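Bump. Still looking for Fungal lipase-type domain-containing protein structure tokens.
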Amino acid sequence: MAQLGEDEILKSTGGGGSEGGEKVVLMENKEEGHHPYAFHVSGPRNVSSPNWRDLISSSWKDGNYKRTVIACFIQAVYLLELDRQEKRTPENALAPKWWIPFKYKLVQTLVDERDGSIYGGILEWDRSAALADFVLMRPSGAPRAVLALRGTLLKSPTIRRDIEDDLRFLAWESLKGSVRFHGAMKALKSVAEKYGSSSICIAGHSLGAGFALQVGKALAKEGIYVEAHLFNPPSVSLAMSFRNIGEKAGFVWKRVKSMLPLNSENQGSTDPAATSIIAGMKQWVPHLYVNNSDYICCYYTDPDGAENSQTEKENTRPCSGNFAAKLFVMSKGNQKFLEAHGLEQWWSDDLEMQMAVQHSKLISRQLKSLYSGPPQQTQGKLQ
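Sorry for the wait, here they are.
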């Protein structure tokens, strides 16, 4: 689940994007001496900075623009930790260049108390920077605050705790025992209380997407619905494998049971009250971005029984028993794992993907707990 794992770091000598309403013009070639993660080297090409035109027609209403900017915010969190490890100063730091062009500012970093690493950050709309470029108000659709969470960083200061949480998910398909889960939960609740849940969003990549999904789901169960953008979320775990075996055994038992004579009292035992509760509740529909060649997240595309995905429908309510997510699938044939799992693909110029409101087996299982029973409380010592 690594996003940034190179051991050799080149010295950065260049700055970031353009000012005001001009296009962020990015260099065509990665010139020697420029850091490979500098915004002008590996960032998105030809992306507009907010300008007065956004007051008439907001770029944030374009799904491609929103996906690109939010992916840049997650990249900034990776670089916040790299800047810390490399002891960069504010003058030569890499991370700020990934949010400044979009008129946002960093207001809080989330630090893992186990190793002191930065795993998340809260970015808020920078009204002062916007006014300096005659953007008098926040464009429609632009969140007031974004909580961005990074994934695994294969560098010696962070790899132990990152892999520890990777293994936690692999074993239990849950991250609630991690201090990062509770740190992200506290931070998201704080900005939701400050700005309202409809004005903020949470986003993550890889392991960070796993945290974002579980934090967003936990808040949704409390009735706080926050927009979520999940890039390459993990979909593989031992717990899932054992659960699949149990589901198959349960299916066989139901088939056998259906062949046995039953009392009339037990027939048609579907609980109409439970169905009406689900139908009447507001639904939380996260945005998932997956690559078919990425074995970590590709299982999200598995359909739930005979339920077919519904293409090009932006507002679809999950039917009874199935819970939907906006699933964006990239298919580029055979790709190397690091390319298929990388964050950079989600702002590339040649990005081609299909959007569907997907009733997948994995999504249905993960979101089912939202609509059954009281909120779950995390117990035990944080590790």
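Residues 63-85 form the longest helix (23 residues).

Edit: fixed formatting.
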